[in-house]
Amino acid sequence: MASFKLCISDPSTGKTFQKEVKDSMAAPFLGLNIGETIKGESIELSGYELQITGGSDYCGFPMRRGILGQRKKITILGGVGFRGAGKGIKRRKTVCGHKIHDRISQINLKVAKPGAKKLAEIFGQENKEEKAGAKEEAKEPKEEKKEKKESKEAKEPKEEKKEKKESKEAKEPKEEKAGDKKQQ
After folding, report:
1. How far apart are CA 39 and CA 82, in angstroms?
2. Which of 64, 107, 137, 160 could bridge to 95 as Cys pair (CB 3.0-4.6 Å)?
């Protein structure tokens, strides 16, 4: 039976959530076209209405609106399947048709009508955001330690630094350096 990877984007937050659907949950998608809407209840998203914006087949070829059949080679100027190489340059590219069939592997969806719960709550993403915020707070003390080290280095007089450099130069014999140049 069919299995799809759904990429559900939420335009209000700008985030995308992924969900895998198989068999009975994937059945409502079969036969739909790009641009059609589907009720969220069929994929356990109550209250949501989702619009199909595209997808790709099992080989990675993108779906393109207006193409009949499963796959087709077309000469395109730009748009889905080709970014464009310059002004007026056309390319012959392979794309999928606009109808969802069992050989499609990924379906891109956009939220057309939001439900009562946020998608982040449904997919459990809010907990991850809170944890990321806690990690950032834990990093702050490390930054303070770095600042303390820098301030200690700034307190050291410049004269002492010069003396250290001079002592290093004094340790290296200058005669050997001159001898090396003569041999070359």
Report:
1. 31
2. 64
At 13, list the tokens: 């937050």
Output the CA torsion 4→105→48→42 (10° steps): -30
> What distance in Å separates the CA atoms of residue 43 and residue 24, rounded to the nearest whole number?
10
Q: Name the residue among 28, 55, 23, 21 with its Cα closest to residue 42.
A: 28
pLDDT tens per residue across span 71-90: 889 888 888 888 777 888 88
Residue at token pair 């209840």: 41
SS3 10: strand
Q: What is the DSSP letter of 20?
A: E
Per-residue pLDDT of 142-169, as tens digits, reads 555 555 555 555 555 555 555 655 655 5
Domain boundaries, the chain: 3-118, 128-171
Token pair in block for residue 9: 């984007």
Cβ atoms of 96 and 104 within 8 Å: the answer is: yes
